[in-house]
Structure formats: C-alpha cells, structure tokens
Amino acid sequence: MFLKVDNNFIRKMKNHLLEFYSGPSIGCILGTNGYIWISANCNDDGVPSVLERKLMATVRNAIVALEKSKIPIFKDTIVKVLDA
Fold it and tell me: Containing domain of residue 35, as a range?
C-alpha cells in the first residue's frame, strides 16, 4: 500500500523501516520525501489475507490521522495512535 503525506511531518530517524503487530507483522517504510509504503508478509501466493489487509488499513488510518492533526509521524506516535 502506498501513501503520500506532507514530508514536513516525517521526523528524521536512524531507521525508517518500522514493523507493527506481532501476529501477522505489518512493515512500514517512512520516506523522508513523504512517501510511505505499508506491506504485509503475504502467504505463499503473494496475496495478503483479510486480517493483514485490515491491519494495513489500520496503520494507514493512524498515519493519516497524525498528518491531519499536524503531529510528527514516527514510530512512537504511530504506536500511540494504534494503542488508542
């Protein structure tokens, strides 16, 4: 899944490769140019399951909520939104 946000909200970090959830893990790459890629570890056929797609959408919605609230986007803020 690809997402574009305002690059001013992406905080510079040591590592821009993030991973959320432990069951089906959801990976996220935060580009400093505002491009964000969200992916799941797919099955053997390369298609994400329904649960993986829901978790990917949840991470996407958390990032969009942070941008609309004008809060910097980095791992801690995304995790706080996902926990809420």
Answer: 2-83
Strand order in the sheet with 17-20: 2-4, 35-40, 26-30, 17-20
User: Cβ of 17: how many Cβ atoms within 10 Å?
Assistant: 10
Rounded distance, CA 33 to CA 54, Å? 26
Pairing of strands 2-4, 26-30: unpaired
| Gap between the Cα atoms of 4 and 51, Å rounded | 23
In angstroms, the CA 24 to CA 57 distance is 13
Number of structural domains (the chain) is 1
Residue 59 pLDDT exceeds 70: yes
Q: What would the pLDDT profile of 2-46 be if each residue is shown by its tens digit? A: 999 999 999 888 888 889 988 788 999 999 999 999 998 766 677
Structure tokens at 79: 């995790």
